[in-house]
Amino acid sequence: MPSNVRNGTGTSIADLASGIIEDAQRLLRQEVELVRREMQQEWNKAKAAGTELGLGAGLSAVGGLLLAFMLVYFLKWLTGWHEAGCFAIVGGILTAVGVALLMRGGHDAGEVNLVPKQAIQELEDTVSETQEKISEAVSETSDQVAAAVRHTTEALTEGTHATPGTRT
Questions:
Q1: SS3 assignment for 36-51
Q2: What is the pLDDT of residues 134-150, one digit of tens each?
């Protein structure tokens, strides 16, 4: 089969297919790099948020502990109740608030998306478009090669049936 079959513009089909493949590879590399960058950005955001949450939780815990002790002793001073009862009241209220915050935080954490859906969709679209272009190029190439083979076969067949002295 001839590898230098030319289309109407003078460019070989092999050159066209090679160009499509090179473009597809370059585009895929760019799409993968985009996905990688987006994932890195989301990871950096998650790390920063985690650090802030950790520090905030630690400082709040220490401050909350001191405030809880202050509330217990204030409640004891104000009411004259037994110290254990005051600890139970303050501890119960703080536990209820803590559980509510944990539930809300768990819900919010469920909305974090570390997978960049848009970039992955674009990558899938690019792969699909590239497959279509390669399929079209292969189909066009096979059609042109088949036409060239038919033409060559017809020319050879006409040459064997030619009578002496006639041109083929």
A1: HHHHHHHHHHHHHHHH
A2: 788 778 777 777 888 88
